[in-house]
Amino acid sequence: MKKIESLPFVAEFVRLCSIGDAQGFHERNGGNLSYHMTADEAKAARKLLAGRKPGPWTDVDPKGDVAVPGLAGEWFLVTGSGKFFRNVAYDAEASAAICELDGDGSHYRVRWGLRGGGRPTSEFSSHLMNLEVKDRLSGGKVRVIYHAHPANLIAMTYVVPLKDRDFTRALWNTMTECPVIFPEGIGVVKWMVPGGREIAVSTSKLMEKYANVVWAHHGVFCAADTFDNAMGQMETIEKAARIFMLVLSSGRKPLAGITSAGYRAIGKAFRVEIPARFL
Ligand code: 13P
Ligand code: ZN
User: Fold this and answer.
1) Following DSSP, what letter does each residue of 140-174 receive, concatenated?
2) Got the DSSP string for 76-131?
3) Which residues surround ligand 2, an ion (CB under 5 A)?
4) From 278's CA, which of 1, 82, 101, 225 has a CA 20 to 30 Å away?
5) How far is Cα 261 from Cα 8, in angstroms, rounded to an integer?
6) What is the mean pLDDT of the chain?
7) Cβ neighbours of residue 175 closer than 8 Å, sequence gap 6 or more
8) Where are the domains of the chain?
9) What pLDDT band is residue 2 in, cutting at 50, 70 and 90?
């Protein structure tokens, strides 16, 4: 019989986990990934899972204070809490789960995966609230939320003021292609306790404006339409952060780099809108 792992979106999910692991973005259980399945994908999964008893309905957030009514009844593939990205390709059924949301988006139940027990990532609230915002803004196109702990970007949060404008300009200035890849800029969430509603609310507010959000002294959240784009954004941001840290550690006073006029010219040449507040 065909297995869940053979469904194309599951194979792509697994592939992103392996690439992220190879990049060194995921020490131990660091980072998490979620995918909002399409109606056809949920139908295909439901067919393969016919006869399997779903898990019990459980609060989206252990505190019971999170609901995503905009995603009621939807299905998601998500990494498990405490699971290692390295092990997703080795044993996806133990490391990830397909979860279904209830009629008001406040409870989920596991339909597949987490063999041996566990629950979805401790950042499930952030993933779902981000997906809810992006689903509304993109008309159902944006379906991937990817959280990682890339070292240079985290290092930057100790030297660049924790403001959207400072981070955006610092990253854009490292590589000419950056403002083409994230023309809307990047959002920054001040240091907060991870997991749960509070950090999810702060992040999802920024997701109204940005595809990528920095968590100070912690990592990055990327939202994208495809797994390739989610990884592409994460890699671009981390490479830009590496260049920034390399320049800083050279000990030389950096030269000016790209000017506001330069960003305007890039916006025109690549037909992307560069927000005036960053110029
Ligand atoms: P999980 O193992 O619960 O996904 O937590 C990892 C993490 O990166 C928390 O921010
Ligand atoms: Zn994290």
Assistant:
1) T---EEEEE--HHHHHHTTTS-SSHHHHHHHHHTT
2) EEEEBTT--GGGTTT-HHHHEEEEEE-TTSSEEEEEEE-TT---B-TTHHHHHHHH
3) 219
4) 225
5) 44
6) 98
7) 236, 239, 240, 243
8) 4-273
9) confident
> C-alpha angle 75/79/82, rounded to 5°?
140
Catalytic residues: 123
Q: CATH second-level architecture of 4-273?
A: 3-Layer(aba) Sandwich (3.40)
Cα angle value 191/193/198 (rounded, 5°): 95
Which amino acid belongs to residue 139? G
Specify the residue for token string 């597949």. Answer: 112
Strands 212-215 and 187-189: parallel
What's the confidence (pLDDT) of residue 132? Answer: 99
Which DSSP symbol is given to 217?
T
By most ligand atoms within 8 Å of CB, the mutation choice from 26, 61, 81 for ligand 1 is 81
State whether the beta carbon of 194 lies less than 6 angstroms from ligand 1: yes
In angstroms, the Cα distances linking 41 to 70, 88, 269 are 19, 20, 38
Mean pLDDT of 94-101: 98
